[in-house]
Amino acid sequence: MGIAQTDLINEAEGHLTAIQMHVDAQVRLNHQDVLIGIESLCCELLNRIYGWNLKNDNFVGRTQQDSFDLSDRGERIAVQVTHTTKPAKIRETLATFVGKHDSTFDRLVFVYPCNKASASKANFDSERKSFDFDSKRDRLDFGNVLLKARALPIDDLANLVRFLRQSIPQILRTPLANEVAVAESLLSKIPHSLRPTAGLALHGRDDVLQALSERNTDFLLVGQPGVGKTAVLSAMIAKQDGYFVHSGSDAALAAQLLAKNPRLVAVEDAHQRIDFIESLRFIRQQNSLTFRILADCWPARRDAVCLAMQLPTVAIIELQPVSNRFIIQMAKDVGISGPERFFHHLVRQSMGYPGRAAMLLRCCKDGDQSDIREFFAGESIAKWTKQLVEKASGSEAIDVLSCLALGRDRGVPLSMIAEYFGKSIASVERIVTDFAAGGIVKQTQFGNLVVYPTAIRPVLIRDFFFGTLRRDIKHFSSDWRLKSVVAMSVVDAYCVGAKVDIQELFQLAEDSDSDEAWDRLAAAEDVLADMVLDKRPDLFDSHVHTFIERTPLRTIERLIGLEAKTRTRFDRQQDTRDQTVETWVKSGYPDRKAIPRRRITLDAIASQLSAGVPAEQAYRLLGCVLSPEYRATGQSPEDFDTFVLT
């Protein structure tokens, strides 16, 4: 299933969840009339997904039916829409239906407006008699409907979602007081903010779930974006019949909490909602409610949230990255079994952050072949990330993310980004919070934010600063704290196709006065390496490993031309310059680079002999060329243990 199709299914699930919440709230308040509107919605929903031709038999002008609401007389199917899932309701309906309508219909289906109806093991043989009723086959909930919808063609699925969008406002319109109507949107089984939805099981958090379950108190989860805070909250909500709670008026929230009386409520990104935390605690106290509060926040705001929740230290759990083994298991859960190069890439990009791993896996799981081929290049990951962020937070979020990408692993101060866009620091922080949940950013110890995965950084910079509308980068490159990283970031963007003049690249490197920036420039292209060596020959010794990768013949010739260091009879250590060449030649084994690298070394030896270099000096490197075999090393993607290939 493609990414677009998955997004449509997720949106449909969100709409149906909203309907379930609405129906639950109305039934609790004894407003059974809500099911009248749900009948018409279910009629159209089943027709679109199952291909039936159901009609609503309870419309004005027709007799009110006693045991069903919808019917397709051509297919001989009758449907009852009900909120009651108990066996007694089925027995009562069958007792009325069989003997009166079984000659007209061959099938009676019960439809429940909820995501998951409880399974029934009851025996209905005495009520159904000879009528063909199967409680497993003929009981449908929204979960069954969504599963069937996955097989729809993309156009039909899009039309279905469009129908739900149009129907939701009418369904949710009720004659109740405003505070109750509004409250229906404040409690949800699904998180409100952006999350990668790869359908993955929770791995590596058993100890955290146990700690949260053992003590009946409030808790705070602290961790970087993408470390899995929301996944833990979701698991606890499923385990203890809880809800994610969204911001709203105190009256609306109190009405909803009183109606549902949950055991647990979860507050996402509490560092942005400290006032709301205080209101939630006040509502609990004033109404003598007993629900627990589980909240999550970023590390830098831990103390402020802890104070608002009035928590002891033992009620704070710091979430750490999970092991590579769990990240790889996430990939296997979605049917990806290799190759090992893929697992290496996944664990290095995710860095133990399940949210970030889920984002990367969705790109491969839901994409087509081209998405998978581009997985390693970063293009498809960046494209998917931009679409997801823009959908959740708007286009300005992409702009902010692109500026953050300039900071590489050092990060960019939010104050600088706020100044660049003419916004307040608080508004920029709110934008960042919206898209941070998938592990797209990480906070450094100095409070700066760093963009992950690393592969998306150059693509973001290319598209924002060097796209159709070119934007001035001097606001960042002129700051002494960022000169070096901005110079390297622009080179990164150049390597993925940014239209940057070579002279501008060299100017940024010169202005940065950083060996790191020159090294990154030399590593970008063979031609650039030669140009850097011409302009900065003093960098040769300190960056010889970069030069030998990009301009090997010239580098090896220069190394041969240098006299070997004088050794004592006790000094048996190999010359580091000779070792550099030998390591480079050996690194070509066992793939097809091995022979060409030996040939380049031989050409360099011959060239230097022709130039008059003493034979003894030139032949120092002959051993690494003529060696019959080499030993190469590999690493396990789970623990990076090194193993030897010969």
Task: Describe this structure as you would to a colleague.
The protein is α/β, with parallel strands linked by helices and 646 residues long. It has 32 helices and 15 strands. The strands form four sheets. The chain has a six-stranded mixed sheet with strand order 6-8-9-10-7-11, sandwiched between helices. α13 packs across α14 (340-350) and α27 (544-550) crosses α28. The chain is elongated, with a radius of gyration of 32 Å. The model is unreliable at 174-184, 566-573 and 642-646 (pLDDT under 50).
Summarize the structure.
By secondary structure, the protein is of the alpha/beta class.
Q: In whole angstroms, how far apart are the ends? A: 42 Å
Q: What percentage of the residues does DSSP assign to strands (E)?
A: 5-15%
Largest sheet: 6 strands, mixed
Low-pLDDT runs of 5+ residues are: 174-184, 566-573, 642-646
Structural class, from helix and strand content? alpha/beta
Strand order of the largest sheet: 6-8-9-10-7-11
What average pLDDT do the residues reach?
Answer: 82
General form: elongated
Question: What keyword list fits this structure?
Answer:
six-stranded mixed sheet, 15 strands, single chain, 646 residues
